[in-house]
């Protein structure tokens, strides 16, 4: 279930990159940042948060264990 | 001259870091130490060096130049899409390649492909395609160095001499320091990049009297489209999300993934990567757009005039004249012009060093090419067995000298635009090679024949796009020239900036066809032995 939710989150953020709703707007946020630029700045922050979620809940720790196991076997006297 | 002196001090610092790394090396004759820093990089150096490796001159000069002529779309096209896709690929692919490297001692992607698919010469072909796509980066790095030193010194340092200095400095610290030196220099350079964006924004904003007036002025001017994406097709915008797939397929990035001491070090890199991109790209794109409101820099006005003439009269001009105007309107030096106008001399020098750091990002490509040559060709075809590891490392060092001399010689003779185009093709080419990595790591059923099909397709597609764009001249800004339509649908068009296939950039069909070829050819051909599959997938059923 956790994996499915994370996959959905990645797909949702990928779709949100295509922000057609701000395509033609020249509105200035805080009086000087174009809304399209502001949105994609926030998108980058959201991408960082998503990466944090992936690292926290889907970290492939089995790979690390496999490496440690291989190293332990190599270090063992024959 | 002060900025040039500051830049020379920067170059001396970078050189010292490389030599210092050489002194710190414990196993100088060991290939793994020289080419991979003994797989021992710590979290801070790993994050910043991996990020710095991926940030070329385009991050500062190209991004602001593109934004100057195309508006805010630049950030969404190149920065925010990379901020999502690149860390995701590092998370999914980089960590797995790191683990395989630790377990089986791989030092290059081709070594892994050869082992995974039980192939030899197909691996050599993959090496050849990767190498050909990588060389333009090295050449453009030297060209960028020559141009930047020439501009910063107001012409006192000639192009040939600036290029020679940059080539010599990069060659020296890569030659002596290997991966350790390159990683440390990249870390130092990334810190400079990160400082650059913020300082440039403050200084130029102050000089322009604040951004609010400039932004409001732009909004009410005929250039208000620069604040929107109304002139960009959503298909084109979507296509750009495929380009960052190239990052993990670049050998220098994948080889960097092998240098981490522990897998945990990927965590910070994955999380902070989008924020680092934000910190560098947002100020540069914003300044590039706002440069359009600067009225007291004659060079900026000349660029705007060239752009206006191209847009209004371009359709009736000869292609050569259009190319000339395109070059005149190019904004790659716009951030340097802003600094020259608004920053005090000493600060312009420091910021010039930041630009120099971006320009000199070819070090990792030189080292990666040397690693690939010595491992995938020299060692694979018996050189290491016959002559030993020390000779292998010396061969790598000689290769570094030869490739740098070659790049310098080409940089002196060839026009820069050729290599800028070659880099565009390289991005699409490496993105089309990314299914190789995904298939090798996640699909048991993939075969060496599938890998061969992907590699041959990529080479053919890159050459075809290059030939098409060379033969059919780019139209003036506006509607594309349709070359082939079917049932009212435009299949192939020549756009002002390149090529469109069904309205998408070529990278989209290139990646999709690559993935399909890998699947179709693999399904029809024999799989590797069970023992090989067990090495990669264990008992897991995929």
Looking at this protein, list some descriptive labels.
heterodimer, A: 78 residues, mainly alpha, two-stranded antiparallel ribbon, 2 strands, 5% strand, elongated, B: three-stranded antiparallel beta sheet, 3 strands, 3% strand, globular
Question: How would you briefly describe this protein structure?
Answer:
The complex is a heterodimer of chains A (78) and B (542). Chain A is mostly helical.
Structural class of the helices, strands and pairings of chain B?
Answer: mainly alpha
The sequence of SSEs of chain B as H and E is HHHHHHHHHHHHHHHHHHHHHHEEEHH
Shape of chain A: elongated
- Spatial arrangement of strands, main beta sheet of chain B: 1-2-3
Q: What is the strand arrangement across the widest sheet of chain A? A: 1-2
Helix content of chain A: 55-70%
Instruction: Report the radius of gyration of chain B as a whole number of Å.
Output: 23 Å
Oligomeric state, counting identical vs distinct chains: heterodimer
CATH homologous superfamily placement of chain B: Sodium/glucose cotransporter
Poorly predicted runs of chain B are none
Uncertain ranges of chain A: none
pLDDT averaged over residues of chain A: 92
Ends apart, CA distance between termini of chain A: 44 Å
**Straight-line distance between termini of chain B:** 62 Å
What do these coordinates show?
The complex is a heterodimer of chains A (78) and B (542). Helices cover 68% and strands 5% of the residues of chain A. Chain A is mainly alpha-helical and 78 residues long. Chain A has one domain. Chain A is elongated and about 70 Å long. The model of chain A has no long low-confidence stretch (mean pLDDT 92). Chain B is mainly alpha-helical. The model of chain B has no long low-confidence stretch (mean pLDDT 88). In chain B, strand 1 and strand 2 (489-495) form a beta hairpin. Chain B has one domain: Sodium/glucose cotransporter, CATH 1.20.1730. The A-B interface holds A 10, 13-14, 17-20, 22-26, 28, 31-34, 36-37, 40-41, 43-45, 47-48, 50-52, 54-55, 59-60, 63-64, 66-67, 70-71 and B 72-73, 75-76, 79-81, 83-84, 87-88, 91, 95-96, 98-99, 102-103, 210-212, 214-216, 219, 224, 227-230, 234, 237-238, 241, 262-264, 267, 270-275, 277-278, 282, 285-286, 289, 538.
């Amino acid at each position: 279930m956790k994996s499915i939710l994370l996959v959905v989150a990645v797909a949702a953020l990928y779709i949100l990159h295509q922000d057609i709703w701000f395509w033609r707007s020249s509105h200035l946020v805080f009086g000087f940042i174009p809304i399209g630029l502001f949105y994609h700045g926030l998108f980058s922050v959201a991408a960082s948060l998503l990466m944090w979620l992936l690292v926290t809940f889907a970290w492939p720790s089995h790979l690390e264990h496999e490496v440690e196991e291989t190293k332990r076997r190599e270090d063992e006297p024959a | 001259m002060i900025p040039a002196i500051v830049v020379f001090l920067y170059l001396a610092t970078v050189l010292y870091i490389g030599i210092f790394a050489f002194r710190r090396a414990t196993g100088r004759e060991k290939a793994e130490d020289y080419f991979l820093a003994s797989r021992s990089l710590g979290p801070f150096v790993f994050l910043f060096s991996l990020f710095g490796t991926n940030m070329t001159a385009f991050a500062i000069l190209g991004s602001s130049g593109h934004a100057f002529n195309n508006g805010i779309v630049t950030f969404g096209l190149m920065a925010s899409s990379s901020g999502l896709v690149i860390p995701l690929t590092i998370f999914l692919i980089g960590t797995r390649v790191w683990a395989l490297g630790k377990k089986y001692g791989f030092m290059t992607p081709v070594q892994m492909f050869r082992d995974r698919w039980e192939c030899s010469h197909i691996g050599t072909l993959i090496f050849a395609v990767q190498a050909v796509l990588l060389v333009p980066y090295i050449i453009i790095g030297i060209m960028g160095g020559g141009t930047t030193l020439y501009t910063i010194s107001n012409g006192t340092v000639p192009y040939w001499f600036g290029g020679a200095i940059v080539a010599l400095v990069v060659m020296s610290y890569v030659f002596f320091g290997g991966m350790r030196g390159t990683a440390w220099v990249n870390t130092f350079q990334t810190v400079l990049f990160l400082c650059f964006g913020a300082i440039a924004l403050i200084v130029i904003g102050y000089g322009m009297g604040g951004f609010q007036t400039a932004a409001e002025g732009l909004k009410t001017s005929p250039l208000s489209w620069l604040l929107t994406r109304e002139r960009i097709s959503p298909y084109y915008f979507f296509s750009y999300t495929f380009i960052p797939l190239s990052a993990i397929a670049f050998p220098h990035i994948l080889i960097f993934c092998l240098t981490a001491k522990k897998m945990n070090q990927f965590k910070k890199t994955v999380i902070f990567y989008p924020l680092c991109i934000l910190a560098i790209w947002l100020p540069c794109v914003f300044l590039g757009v706002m440069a359009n409101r600067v009225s007291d820099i004659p060079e900026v006005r000349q660029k705007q005039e060239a752009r206006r003439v191209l847009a209004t009269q371009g359709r009736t001009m000869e292609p050569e004249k259009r190319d000339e105007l395109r070059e005149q309107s190019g904004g790659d030096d716009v951030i340097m012009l802003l600094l020259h106008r608004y920053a005090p001399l000493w600060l312009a020098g420091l910021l010039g060093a930041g630009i120099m750091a971006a320009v000199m990002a070819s070090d990792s490509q030189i080292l990666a090419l040397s690693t690939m040559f010595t491992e995938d060709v020299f060692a694979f075809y018996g050189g290491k067995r016959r002559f030993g590891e020390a000779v292998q490392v010396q061969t790598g060092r000689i290769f570094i000298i030869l490739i740098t001399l070659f790049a310098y010689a080409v940089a002196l003779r060839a026009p820069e635009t050729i290599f800028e185009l070659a880099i565009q093709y390289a991005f699409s080419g490496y993105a089309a090679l990314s299914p190789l990595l995904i298939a090798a790591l996640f699909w048991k059923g993939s075969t060496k024949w599938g890998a061969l099909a992907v590699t041959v397709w990529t080479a053919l597609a890159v050459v075809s796009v290059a030939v098409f764009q060379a033969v059919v001249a780019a139209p003036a800004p506006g509607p594309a020239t349709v070359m082939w339509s079917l049932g009212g649908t435009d299949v192939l068009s020549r756009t002002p900036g390149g090529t469109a296939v069904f309205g998408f950039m070529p990278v989209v069909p290139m990646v999709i066809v690559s993935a399909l070829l890998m699947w179709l050819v693999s399904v029809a051909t024999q799989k590797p032995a069970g023992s090989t599959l067990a090495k990669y997938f264990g008992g897991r059923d995929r």
